Amino acid sequence: MFGALDLRTGQLYYRIRDRKRWTEFLAFLKSLRGRWQSQKLYLICDNYSVHKRAEVRAWCAGNAVELVFLPTYSSWLNRIECEFAALRYFALNGTDHRSHDEQDDAIGTYVPWRNQHAGPVRDFAVGSKIRRPDYLPKVA
Predict the structure, then answer these.
(1) Which domains are delineated in the chain?
(2) Phi, psi at 28, each rounded to 5°
(3) Per-residue pLDDT tens for 66-123?
(4) Measured between alpha carbons, how far is residue 67 from residues 8, 22, 27, 124 in Å?
């Protein structure tokens, strides 16, 4: 599954594919580009090699898509991870899907319900020490 979270609306967009190669990731990016045609897209990504593939980066450079990579081992900084945790909790935990199609259907039922109840994502991690400028130690 590839997923994207629109912070402005809180909507979750996803694609489930049999594999997670760079070609599937690029197809997902193209679908996002088609959804928001007139504005530059900023996508927060982890360091999965598929995200950094030369063909993906070249396409992004030519199509006003900027991939912003998180530091290694810090995917928890990406707001979409909260949505993935909720998806696991509400759609997958405690289930015994007999096939990938059943699992995909559970996800496909959850996401539209979740999007109906979505709102703008702002002011997250309010009061957290990681938002203070002095959080990281000074490096000489």
Answers:
(1) 2-131 (3.30.420.10)
(2) -65, -45
(3) 999 988 888 888 888 888 898 989 888 888 888 888 989 989 999 999 999 999 988 7
(4) 18, 14, 15, 21
